[in-house]
């Protein structure tokens, strides 16, 4: 039956984890996948999550959630993106369902886009998270790209971005990273977001925000929603994919949310029913445990406060590691500029290293990262930063 099947190419991100796990060197370092580690390199379960689990233990039954998932979780999640007092929430203009984390939310949206606007395309930034390409490809939505990153400045290609928005056909779909752009760690400023939003308005484009890192850009989820709030203030009907993988450390729980702003409540009811209809033959309904953890945390003022504190601790540790990596490289006498290590934000540093240099890091130093030169700063610790800097210095000489 399966004679024609060839092995699939390794995933550019998760394939790195596989290779790391297969390496038995005591020196090995994983700065591939974007998954937070404490300063001992250990995965972290947040204290607010532990407490939520204690509270729900015993109360938990294993019944199905509705097709759209936990509405309690969805309600709390919308407040994080749209704001506590959002008029869109008040007026019930948002169609929203629980999704299988950020990936599932993007995929559900891509399938929805294909089903109701089959000839539409999606503009995707270059570079972007590699899975974005897979998601819209498998949903059979045609992909276009837009300029985002300028290698010379290791910053935003704002002029290129604005030109591409202007030159796209009116009413195009754009995928935007709400904050802490993956993989570059480069975000537009508030002023630039305002200009982008105005340009979208002129062109009648649709903005779909992937917000996988809310809290990781500034340490404050509220501030990290700025791009979205700007678009909402300008009256855009946007879509958002939200994820709790990173900011609650619920990676394997697969808990997130897809929301789409509609014209009115009636439209929102229709859109939500169609999103559920898409979910039903794929996975029927989403898992309950992660959703319960999230709603228990966000629905309780004390646990929410603890969560906000813990997000900031994670974000601050990463910022500290940026400084340490840059200082180490400078102390080693690297003639290259490493300013971008501290300028960039979020979980990742887009180092500028070539795939060949990355291969040397892996083969000679057992340091694992994606071949586009992205370093997951969340995997850098006081224990490995010196080793990492020395290896980077050697391969970039
Ligand atoms: C990453 O970019 O490393 C994360 O979003 C994990 C993933 O699923 O790729």
Structure description:
It is a single chain. With 397 residues, this protein is an alpha/beta fold. The protein has helices at residues 14-22, 47-56, 71-82, 87-90, 101-116, 130-138, 158-167, 190-203, 221-224, 226-233, 265-283, 289-298, 301-331, 339-343, 355-365, 385-396, and strands spanning 29-30, 94-99, 121-126, 142-147, 149-150, 155-156, 173-177, 206-211, 239-243, 256-261, 348-350, 367-368, 374-376. Strands 2-10-9-8-7-3-4 form a seven-stranded mixed sheet, with helices on both faces. Strands 1-12 form a two-stranded parallel ribbon. Helix 15 crosses helix 16 (385-396). It binds (2S)-2-hydroxybutanedioic acid (LMR). (2S)-2-hydroxybutanedioic acid is lined by residues 13, 33-34, 129, 131, 182. (2S)-2-hydroxybutanedioic acid (LMR) binds next to loops.
In short:
The protein is an alpha/beta fold and 397 residues long. 46% of the residues lie in helices and 14% in strands.
Give the radius of gyration.
21 Å
Overall average residue pLDDT: 97
Arrangement of strands in the largest sheet: 2-10-9-8-7-3-4
The biggest sheet amounts to: 7 strands, mixed
Low-confidence stretches: none
Q: In percent terms, what proportion of residues is strand?
A: 5-15%
Enzyme class: transferase
Cofactor: pyridoxal 5'-phosphate
Protein name: Aspartate aminotransferase
EC number: 2.6.1.1
